[in-house]
Amino acid sequence: MAIDPDKLLALRFPEIRHSYDARTCILYALGLGAGIDPLDENQLKYVDETKLQAVPTMANILAYPGFWMRDLDTGIDWVRVVHGEHSTRLHRPLPTSGTIVGRSRIVDLIDKGEGRGALVYVERTIHDADSDALIATLRQTVFCRGDGGFGGRAGPTPTPHPTPERPADVTIEMPTHPQLALIYRLSGDENPLHCDPATARKAGFDRPILHGLATFGIAGNALVAACCDHDPERYLAIGGRFSAPVFPGETISVEIWHEAAGRAAYRARVSARDVNVISNGWFEYTPQE
Fold this sequence. Notes:
Blueprint lengths: L4 H5 L6 E5 L1 H9 L10 H4 L23 H4 L9 E10 L7 E14 L6 E11 L5 E11 L25 E6 L4 H5 L12 H6 L9 H16 L7 E8 L8 E10 L2 E8 L4 E11 L4
Antiparallel strand pairs: 1-3, 2-5, 2-7, 3-4, 4-5, 6-8, 7-10, 8-9, 9-10
């Protein structure tokens, strides 16, 4: 099958209703490495139910629509898709428990041409189930490597956030541990690429890789620490472009540039391999009064 742009833009996603509690919050935080330093109070508040705060990027796992590229009638060659870009915006602090509703839709398509793939832009909004109040907006760019040449619009595409050419203002080192992907997958993404060595080798890796959204959440925690004095309620939004995988056990260096009040640029790297894992990153937050 090939992509039918009219059909794909009209695709109906099932509405997802999701109830979660403190255990959901704690498991997600553990999947980002919270508690690696068991004496760090700034980490323990994400895993101790007596003083619990939700990690802001946990919105990414709530009302998750599953592997919709495979499970719905999309025409996408789902075997060859990769997660290109992602952003998460909170419209209010994320509660530590509740019932929410997720609504997903495809908002745009770009045809890069035969042999060059396609870009599918997806938006998911998360609402309180009782009031329908908007809690979060998530945007994802899916790079469909096997689906170019369907006759769709060739552009333009959004300009990525520029990375400053000067040295970073601050760098936060975020260690991970070898079991991290095994924990993160319990929050909903059970792709065997992250746990099965044989699957990882078939994909071209010598061992399982960390989930991209786990790397994204780890970067978010570093930014909250550096820009928000560890206060997750000051987080507003984060975005970035995935550029390479992380292997569990590696240390992620998050380089941060202060751009203006309430706005920063960032890049996530694995310095030991001299590779960028998130590029063109941006972060918005409430400035200190």
